[in-house]
Amino acid sequence: MFEALAHDLAELPALLEETRTYTARILAGLDERPVTAAAVEHVAAALPEDGGGLRAALRAFESRWEPGFSASAGPRYLGFVTGGTTPAALSGDWLTAALDQNAHGAVGSAAAALERETVARLGELFGLDMPGAFVTGATMSNLVGLAIGREWLGSLRGASTAEEGVTAPVRVLSGTPHSSIGKSLSVLGIGRRRLVSVATLPGREAVDIVALERELAAGPAIVVANAGTVNTVDFDDIRAIAALKSRHDFWLHVDAAFGGFAAASPAHAPLLDGWAEADSVCVDLHKWLNVPYDSAVQFTRRQDLQLRVFENVSPYLGTPGATPDFMHLTPETSRRLRALPAWFTLEAYGRSGYREIVERAIECAREMGARLERNPRWRLLAPVRLNVVCFTLSGAVTTERVAAVLEELTRSGEAFLTPTVYQGAPAIRAAFSNWRTTLADVDRVCAALGA
């Protein structure tokens, strides 16, 4: 065995303890660490000829790279919709690496059974009674749902898209689709131009049901319903969309990347009314579940079609069987056991724990919105419906003014927010989903904004 590798094996308990101590120090400093790091030009170092072992690698990382990493796991990183990692999820992720299971199937490991239990627990949290599987994020979850919908449309024409390819145009209808929908259509060979933008309600991002039905009159399609839009967390009327199935043929895919967690709060669960009738559902987990990147879940009631799309049959892999292995249900054949961090955090904190995390994030978003609304420097662009505050400067707003504000905020190290455009206006988004965030963090962010 190579000398440095043999040494690390012999010293493994001590080296893991050093790594734990170093990790704990980073996490303990998250509240005060600059939320984003200044851009630094890094000169790539050459590959070591021999290497100095793990201890030397830790020292090199600490000096060269760690100072440039953001506090994205912390409570005031409000860009995108970024969660953190709960203590239980962190432990689960360490064990995921230590056990190093290929969670592709049931042979020789309990990994697949644990994933099925975890998916079922998430279904209980969300009120969804459908089989599902873990994937890498919302983009992949949406892609899987759309791929199954594409196969369903082919079956209406008496063909299998999985076998024959896309032989006829596929129409995809949505009011305010996430950018990952267009990306998925590109990957699937459907084409970005097949995404039909359906009219939304006045002053809303929610789809106009009457306009949607007019589009459905043109023939079978895939409908992407939104359960939490990126800018304003608006929700389509999923119940009304599902009711259209009695008159039209369409595949209903619900993109609930982070809005799906409204189900954890009884006060907000009605926003998702009807989503249990969807054909496929996307929920991201490295957002409000607060598990490490990258993790999401996809649900579908048509696993038979899912198997037709993703099956990977080879003599050394075996056949799918009555209960298909996950490698036959998702794009990846080699699959990290992403379910384990999720299992740990659900086991550790349960339904009540996630209700508290979700409701605290909503409380923080509403408090920030109320403060901005009272301050003449700022203007809310939409009601705070859930966990995102969409706002802009008062007066004449330009992209440059917004960029200058965000640059100043980033330089302060107090918070990270992202720019956007809402109804033509340059704007700012503050997205709350981290399990650590409290009203004290809202105080700090608002103070940095002069609000």
Automatic annotation (TrEMBL):
<keyword id="KW-0032">Aminotransferase</keyword>
<dbReference type="InterPro" id="IPR002129">
    <property type="entry name" value="PyrdxlP-dep_de-COase"/>
</dbReference>
<keyword id="KW-0456">Lyase</keyword>
<keyword id="KW-0808">Transferase</keyword>
<dbReference type="InterPro" id="IPR015422">
    <property type="entry name" value="PyrdxlP-dep_Trfase_small"/>
</dbReference>
<comment type="similarity">
    <text>Belongs to the group II decarboxylase family.</text>
</comment>
<dbReference type="InterPro" id="IPR015424">
    <property type="entry name" value="PyrdxlP-dep_Trfase"/>
</dbReference>
<protein>
    <submittedName>
        <fullName>Aspartate aminotransferase family protein</fullName>
    </submittedName>
</protein>
<dbReference type="InterPro" id="IPR010977">
    <property type="entry name" value="Aromatic_deC"/>
</dbReference>
<dbReference type="InterPro" id="IPR015421">
    <property type="entry name" value="PyrdxlP-dep_Trfase_major"/>
</dbReference>
<keyword id="KW-0210">Decarboxylase</keyword>
<keyword id="KW-0663">Pyridoxal phosphate</keyword>
<dbReference type="GO" id="GO:0008483">
    <property type="term" value="F:transaminase activity"/>
</dbReference>
<dbReference type="Pfam" id="PF00282">
    <property type="entry name" value="Pyridoxal_deC"/>
</dbReference>
